[in-house]
From TrEMBL:
PANTHER family named among the record's database cross-references: A/G-SPECIFIC ADENINE GLYCOSYLASE/ENDONUCLEASE III, ENDONUCLEASE III
Binding-site residues, [4Fe-4S] cluster: 194, 201, 204, 210
Entry keyword annotation includes DNA-binding: yes
Record organism: Natrinema altunense (strain JCM 12890 / CGMCC 1.3731 / AJ2)
The protein's name: Endonuclease III
Entry-linked InterPro entries: DNA_glycosylase, Endonuclease3_FeS-loop_motif, HhH-GPD_domain, HhH_base_excis_C, HhH_motif, Nth
Annotated Gene3D superfamilies: Helix-hairpin-Helix base-excision DNA repair enzymes (C-terminal) (1.10.1670.10), Hypothetical protein, domain 2 (1.10.340.30)
Amino acid sequence: MGTPRETTQAQAETVIDRLEAEYPESAISLRYSNRLELLIAVILSAQCTDERVNQETEHLFEKYDGAEDYATAEQDELAADLNSITYYNNKAKYIRSACESILEDHDGEVPDTMAELTDLSGVGRKTANVVLQHGHDIVEGIVVDTHVQRLSRRLGLTEEEYPDRIEEDLMEIVPEDSWQEFTHLCIDHGRATCTAQNPDCGDCVLADRCPSAKGDSEIDLASGDPW
């Protein structure tokens, strides 16, 4: 198997350096033009691909203009507008409720604190981190999506299983000025090479440092299952 660096801090630095070289244009892939659109896009992206979300929001953002439009929309109509998105009924409820709170409690503006964001329906820490980073230029954590979760375990950066605990580990070892970039690098690499089901370890720039590399290791450290 690949040989990790001597410490998790050093391993994280190697991961960042190599992925920066591999994906120099790494950035968020969701499309939006304001903070509310960003919030809605991230809510929709839960257990759904960004590509699908971008296809759906192209017409959604033309139809609905501002928090009041979403808050006063009929549940069935909004759900129908989201029907290619996973769990579209629940997500329509979240969006309507979150926009009601934005109107009633935040003067129609998307809030800019972790506590206020996570009080909104359908918004957990991951979603709040994305909105803070890309909507308010506030970086106070690391977004742990499925790609970050998978890669950080495979690369030996954490043994934790749940996103909040993984984020705590990563914030200890990833340099703070790389917190935002780290997520995008993991997403790009997770999509291109280190996929969930059949990672291309033979063409991976991190294979020699990956304790989970297929062909060397018998175990996928992301799942704990044999390859």
